[in-house]
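Write out the 3D structure for:
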Amino acid sequence: MTDPSKSGVLRVYNLISNVGRTLHIAINCGGHSQLKCGLALVYDKFKGLFKIVHIFAGNPSVHCEILELESESFRKIDVPLYIGERKHDWGDPIFVSGRYIYWDVCSSECILSMDICEEKFYEIPLARSTNNYSVLERGGCLGLELAIDIGAAKMWF
């Protein structure tokens, strides 16, 4: 969670263990907002680590930083320049298979993916240009729901 009164501060809290931690974000995105930046808390099952991914549209490109909760500071991750050419809106991320994060970035052309183990980004093109879709996860698989009519949709996994 973020503290709107403190720019650049992020509070992580484990509801099961009742342990919390205050983190200072290295690159200030101007305040957390779904339109400005995306935050994801993920578990890298291959390294056995929790990671926080902070991604946001900066000037002139997209910026990303990652914190392994066992460390004390965020580190910058390279984001391919082509990802920053569009004006992304950051929705809630979808975490799939303990390895990949997907964002519906309100694009009619693609969704954005990140391999959290290798810490690399990918754009996944949509089969056809549309804005009437939702990204979802079911049974460890990524899905795409396409609204085709009122009360009717197609789903791909």
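Residues 114 and 121 are 4 Å apart (CA to CA).
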